[in-house]
């Protein structure tokens, strides 16, 4: 149903347990003072990486680099996606043979609004003004790809103040699409349901922010 969060993407229980073990171990390494407890948390983190390597087929070295390279209390990563409209069509950018709403990970020195502006300028060449938040969704429940860390996907309705696309290191093309003529989507970044949700939000001045 349009406007509703997508169905949750199923996950292998072993992967889910490995991710939870990683979270517990990282928190324990951060707050524990006892040397023996720290050794135990190190081993728990190693076990979680072994499970992930076994299930993914990746080497332990790669898994540890991706899965065990953070310190401190683990929190979700933020990803912004800009919804920009013109004449009833939404702006999308092309990466390879797939399309997505312009956006990306929030840099440590950026707010949600400033990161949205930055990503649109880099990927689509437009200067935009964030207007309002459409949704804050759990990326690991909605996307086709499961990440080993939490993701909060923030969809932001924006107003375009002009600009022009230039091919860059990330995107090769931009285009405007109607809801009945969407291109092949980069579903790791946004699903069809999420794009259609943005159309509904743009048409509704009383839109209520969706969140998981």
TrEMBL record:
Domain Nudix hydrolase: 75-199
Pfam families (alphabetical): NUDIX, Nudix_N
Gene Ontology molecular function: hydrolase activity
Cofactor(s) this protein requires: Mg(2+)
Keywords per UniProt: Hydrolase
Protein's UniProt name: Hydrolase, NUDIX family
SUPFAM superfamilies linked: Nudix
CDD domains per the UniProt record, alphabetical: NUDIX_ADPRase (cd18889)
Hydrolase listed as a keyword: yes
Organism: Oxalobacter formigenes OXCC13
């Amino acid at each position: 149903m349009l406007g509703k969060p997508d169905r949750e993407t199923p996950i292998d229980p072993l992967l889910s347990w490995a991710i939870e073990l990683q979270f517990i171990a990282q928190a324990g390494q951060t707050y524990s003072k006892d040397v023996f407890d720290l050794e135990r948390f190190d081993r728990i983190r190693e076990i979680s990486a072994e499970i992930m390597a076994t299930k993914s087929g990746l080497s332990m070295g790669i898994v540890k680099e991706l899965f065990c390279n953070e310190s401190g209390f683990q929190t979700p990563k933020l990803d912004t996606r800009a919804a920009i409209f013109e004449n009833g069509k939404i702006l999308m950018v092309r990466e390879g043979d797939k399309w997505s709403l312009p956006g990306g990970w929030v840099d440590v020195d950026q707010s949600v609004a400033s990161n949205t502006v930055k990503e649109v300028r880099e990927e689509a060449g437009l200067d935009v003004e964030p207007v309002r938040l459409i949704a804050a969704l759990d990326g690991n429940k909605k996307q086709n790809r499961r990440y080993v860390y939490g993701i909060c996907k923030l969809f932001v309705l924006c107003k375009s103040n002009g600009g022009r696309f230039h091919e860059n290191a990330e995107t090769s093309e931009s285009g405007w699409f109607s809801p009945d003529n969407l291109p092949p989507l980069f579903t790791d970044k946004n699903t069809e349901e999420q794009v259609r949700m943005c159309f509904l939000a743009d048409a509704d001045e009383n839109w209520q922010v969706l969140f998981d």
